[in-house]
Design a protein that fits this description.
Elements (H helix, E strand, L loop, with lengths): L8 H18 L19 H8 L2 H15 L17 H15 L2 H13 L9 E2 L8 E3 H14 L2 H16 L6 E3 L1 E2 L14 E3 L8 H17 L2 H15 L12 H14 L2 H16 L21 H21 L9
């Protein structure tokens, strides 16, 4: 069935290219971005972005900057503020995946080794430091990001181990209306009134990306292994998405949900997933500025108010999903209007 939508693959590629043009025009020859030279938050998705958008010169520059400014023995957080460590391995995995896509195998190998060493042996979850530096917990989003990187790098044993942790976390959720995201190193869920610890299903004001990246990983594992358990897990996460507040369709943390639904369509061919992805993504297309960038709604009321690193990150991430969705939804979307 063809979609009832104004989205086309041509429109997705044009929007992604405008975002890439905006970033590329401001990137310095050494790969640094003015005003955020020391903020890893602005750079960690750029390798994937430039790989998908076909910008080899910019990709090489950014990888060189990551190597010189942030890299140390597989980690990319040298000289960063302690406040960013809560999602260190989430970012490291994004970088590792992009490096492998671009063919910088020396760096991706080191990053992959680092990520595997950050897995908790008894569970397979990736650690984060959500409170004080050095106080570690296992994190759903970080584990998903690592699993996606492992799939990309062909590290199937590690990818499956992460997936098993995610399935276990999904099955052990203690309350039907709350999706807990962190567990201590003994496996107990951590329950704090913090958006990075819990998604309150059916309530507004939530961060939705963990649900989306969970679907991405389970879809990838289903495609890679042919095992039905991964698709069953993805469908459970999708059911949680279906119970979310309607704000899901108008907040910037919905982007990975669109990506995840598109990946499920790619694996199953079920147009319901494509329709969900397109319904979410139409808002992202409509909220791109003429310059090609995005405001993190509803956190900021204007681009002047929004910190530069968040503007860069929002543009890079929204831009890269334009290319991801053009690929995964291509059998369902029209090519042009």
């Amino acid at each position: 069935m063809r979609p009832v939508t104004n989205i086309t693959t041509a429109r997705l590629i044009e929007a992604g290219s405008r975002a890439a043009d905006w970033v590329s025009a401001r990137l310095r020859p050494d790969g640094s971005f003015p005003g955020v030279e020391n903020e890893i938050e602005a750079y960690y998705k750029m390798p994937v972005f430039f790989a998908l958008s076909g910008r080899p010169v910019e990709a090489a520059a950014v990888v060189g900057y990551l190597r010189e400014r942030f890299f140390d023995a597989g980690d990319f957080h040298t000289g960063t503020d302690d406040t960013v460590l809560s999602f260190r391995n989430y970012r490291n995995a994004w970088i590792a995946r992009g490096l492998h896509m671009l063919g910088f195998y020396d760096l991706s190998r080191a990053a992959g080794d680092y990520l595997e060493a950050e897995m908790v042996p008894d569970f397979g979850g990736l650690v984060t430091e959500p409170g004080a530096p050095g106080v570690k917990a296992m994190d759903w989003g970080s584990t998903c990001s690592a699993a996606k990187a492992f799939l990309t790098m062909g590290r199937m044993t590690a990818a499956v181990r992460c997936g098993e942790y995610l399935v276990d976390s999904l099955e052990r959720q203690p309350e039907p209306d709350r999706f807990l995201l962190k567990r201590d190193l003994g496996g107990a869920f951590l329950d704090e009134e913090d958006q990075t610890f819990v998604i309150e299903l059916e309530r507004p004001g939530q961060i939705y990306f963990p649900l989306g990246i969970g679907m991405v990983v389970f879809a990838g594992l289903a495609a890679s292994t042919g095992e039905s358990k991964w698709l069953s897990a993805a469908q459970k996460v999708y059911a949680a998405v279906g119970r979310s507040h309607d704000e899901l369709f108008g907040v910037i943390t919905n982007r990975k949900v669109a990506w995840g639904a598109a990946e499920l369509f790619s694996v199953t061919g079920d147009s319901a997933y494509a329709e969900m992805s397109a319904r979410i993504w139409s808002w992202t297309l409509e909220t791109q500025t003429p310059e090609g960038i995005w405001l993190r709604h509803p956190e900021y009321a204007s681009l002047d108010e929004q910190p530069r690193d968040l503007t860069v990150d929002a543009t890079v991430e929204s831009g890269l999903y334009m290319f991801e969705l053009a690929r995964t939804l291509a059998p369902w979307l029209p090519r042009s209007a």
